[in-house]
Write a structure and sequence with these properties.
Blueprint (H helix, E strand, L loop, with lengths): L3 H8 L1 H6 L28 H6 L4 E6 L7 H9 L5 E10 L2 E9 L3 E6 L6 H4 L1 H13 L4
Parallel strand pairs: 1-4
Antiparallel strand pairs: 2-3, 3-4
Length: 141
């Protein structure tokens, strides 16, 4: 399933610069279009320890996700043994709670978006954009 707004956003030169993506790495961002998932018992958890020393990570999901629930994500993030640096707190937009966020070390932020499923940007694009933008700007907490 294509997500044209996300493709445009992540292809923007200012966004790529903010994410420190070298110009030679990626010309235009494209979302997956075949809908095929490869399941494994470890998922992406094995990548996090390799990446954490070099990059900050925003891991987010929808609270109605069926493939990896919020509870499941919290459990495997806990298995990384990172200290919780910011307690679970609400994220608001126009006075309404749109999700929750917590900090796990200075490198990892976990957020869940209310009323969103496995692809929050599809289910709740405005809320997802707010959370990603706030994280990039350092104002999510």
């Amino acid at each position: 399933m294509r997500h044209p707004l996300l493709e445009e956003y992540f292809s923007n030169a200012l966004v790529k610069a903010a994410l420190k993506i070298p110009k030679t790495v990626l010309n235009n961002w494209a979302s997956c279009s075949n809908g095929t998932y490869n399941f494994s018992s470890n998922g992406s958890i094995g990548l996090y320890p390799q990446v954490l020393g070099n990059y900050k990570i925003l891991h987010y999901n929808g609270n109605n996700a069926m493939l990896v629930s919020t509870w499941s994500a919290q459990q495997w993030l806990s298995s990384l043994n990172l200290n919780i640096t910011k307690e679970w707190s609400p994220i608001t937009q126009s006075g309404k709670t749109i999700g929750f966020v917590e900090g796990r070390s200075s490198q990892l932020t976990f957020a869940t978006i209310l009323e969103a499923g496995d692809v929050p940007a599809f289910d709740r694009p405005a809320e997802t954009s707010k959370i990603i933008s706030s994280w990039i700007q350092g104002t999510l907490f």
